Amino acid sequence: MYRAVTRQIEVTVEPNFLPERSSVENRQYFWSYTIVITNTGEETVQLQTRHWIITDASGRKQEVRGEGVVGEQPVLAPGERFEYTSGVPLPTASGIMTGRYQMVSESGERFEIDVPTFSLDSPDSRRTLN
């Protein structure tokens, strides 16, 4: 599990390789990832947009920007959490993802929070220690 906290908003990520949706022969690898966003602060916030940077094992980067997550722009009161699962395909057996969410507070202040950088590893990927 990966974790980041920005302005009392906690984001955790748990990636999961999906062999049943992957094909080594066709160089298609697929992961799901479950994200939990928890508001540990004292002000209600709403997730507005997402920005992902997805890098495969060859160093190719893909940027994804959009409104909300999984079709929603959740509002989180103090102590509330929002959980969702999404997925990502890669042409390589490993990669990394990192991102940010733009939030807005109930007072109208816009700010960004970090999504922790997380590793996408399949059983077919070779581990390299730097």
Please outline what is shown here:
The chain is mainly beta. 0% of the residues lie in helices and 62% in strands. 19% of the residues are buried.
Task: Walk me through this protein's architecture.
The structure is a single chain. The chain is mainly beta and 130 residues long. The chain has no helices and nine strands. The protein has strands at residues 2-6, 9-17, 29-39, 45-56, 61-67, 75-76, 81-90, 94-105, 110-121. The strands form two sheets. Strands 4, 5, 6, 8 and 9 form a five-stranded antiparallel β-sheet that branches. A four-stranded antiparallel β-sheet has the order 1-2-3-7, with no helix packed on it. Strand 4 and strand 5 form a beta hairpin. The protein is elongated.
Question: Secondary structure elements and their pairing?
Answer:
Blueprint: E1 2-6, E2 9-17, E3 29-39, E4 45-56, E5 61-67, E6 75-76, E7 81-90, E8 94-105, E9 110-121
Antiparallel strand pairs: 1-2, 2-3, 3-7, 4-5, 4-6, 4-8, 8-9
